[in-house]
Amino acid sequence: MPLYEYYCEDCHGVFELLRPTREASDPQPCPECDADGRRVVSNFRAFIFRDGYPRKIPDDGTYWHFGDKVSKPISEATSANEHPEVQNKQSPPSAPSREEYEKYSYDVSEYARRQQQQLDAGLRTPGIEPQTEGRLGAFNQRVRETRKEARLKVRRTSNAEATPRTVSGTHGRTSKKKPKK
Questions:
Q1: Residue 58: cis peptide before it, omega within 30 degrees of 0
Q2: Fewer Cβ neighbours under 10 Å: the N or C end of the chain?
Q3: What is the mean pLDDT of residues 45-51?
Q4: Are 16 and 4 in contact, with CB atoms under 8 Å apart?
Q5: Furthest-apart CA pair in the chain: how many Å?
Q6: Which residue, 157, 161, 162, 147, is CA-closest to 92?
């Protein structure tokens, strides 16, 4: 006899029963609460083994490493539980904190002050500080990238998520009813 799965709505449980094929579509009593459960399609997953690794069917020739799809298995020495392809994927930069913005504005004002002092001292062109300019440029780049990510994220949200719902017929207005005496 085949094994079938049933779902009980009363206790939200899934249970398996051996039943003849002709009785498979009939509701079956739940072993927990004794309510009738309806038959559900089993969550079936098939695997094969290739190169000693389990592969999902259909096999597209790629491998899986902790939920990430990779093109080949680990073949070199790496740190624990890390795959070279997964390590090379860069995560988007995080948005700067308030303290980082304050430090950035302080660094910009100090850099401008030092250049103004050099101009006041009689230098035609103030000296360029490559480290400071590189640090400030990297911060500006990070701000641009995080703003770009935020714009893309807003574009990806559906209208239902981005627009607040209004009550039908009120067109966004709320009515205040006077209490009856």
A1: yes
A2: C
A3: 71
A4: yes
A5: 100
A6: 147
| AA letter at 159 | N
Beta strands in the chain (DSSP E): 3-8, 13-18, 28-29, 36-40, 47-50, 53-56, 63-65, 68-70
Q: Which two tokens stand for residue 13?
A: 């449980």
Tell me the helix, strand and coil percentages in the chain, rounded to 5.
35, 20, 50
What gap in Å lies between CA 73 and CA 64, rounded to an integer?
8
User: Look-up: residue for tokens 């400030």?
Assistant: 136
pTM value surpassing 0.70: no
Scan for tokens 């899986």, then name that residue: 64
All residues at 6 or more sequence positions from 132 whose CB lies less than 8 Å from its CB, including other chains: 107, 111
Q: For residues 5-36, b (16+ Cβ closer than 10 Å) or e, as one string?
A: ebebeeeeeebebebeeeeeeeebebeeeeee
Residue 155: band (very low, low, confident or very high) from pLDDT cuts 50, 70, 90 = low
Secondary structure E strands in 76-132:
none
Instruction: Say what the pLDDT of residue 179 is.
Output: 59
pLDDT range class, residue 109, cuts 50, 70, 90: very high
CA distance 77 to 8: 49
